[in-house]
Amino acid sequence: MRRWCKSTLTVLIIVAFAGLSGQLSGQVKSAQSRVIETPFTDSFTTPSTTQSDIPQGWKNWKTAGDDGIIFYDKTFGRNDKFSIGFENSRSACWFTTISAKPGTTYRLSGYVKAESQNNGLVALMLDPNIIDKTTGKSRTLFSQRAINTQTAPGDWTYFEIIYQTPLSGDYPEGKLDTINLYCSVRNIPGKAWFDDIKLDVLENTAP
Ligand SMILES: [Ca+2]
After folding, report:
1. What is the model's pTM?
2. Which of 53, 64, 141, 164 has the fewest CB atoms within 10 Å around its CB?
3. CATH T-level topology, domain 8-202
């Protein structure tokens, strides 16, 4: 988990390479595809039953020494009064984990609003978690990350990533288990909010 924010550049290079190599799994380009089902959607209206400052099912993380604030906003949202956000964060994320199926084309989408137009970055990311074939334990496979990073875009802006799980469910390192969905920021001046996060399953575009 802790590597994700540190290595955005490396990840971008890896993702770019994965795209070029034409693998059957990994991040693929956006396409006009039919939505088969929507296994996950969240507008953040439900607080955790155990921790009122966190929306149900979500966790957050920030890099060591980051003085920024990670918050669950119950006064402001895109179509309601609920969202998740960050303030003056150097490298931080909200994330949740959901079950995943092999041979599936996922589209993670959401909306982001940022106070400042400076060079702060916002991102949607998706990482598969695998059962490692050597250790038998679950771990995040950072090398297969899908990511859409943008400069802080201003008013509520839609963006998305599309990620294809391998047909067999097998990565060289182990078997697909779950996926992590992230709303993340880097070097955000002022506040940035995420809302209406959704995971769709699209009609499979694999050849
Ligand atoms: Ca909302």
Report:
1. 0.86
2. 64
3. Jelly Rolls (2.60.120)
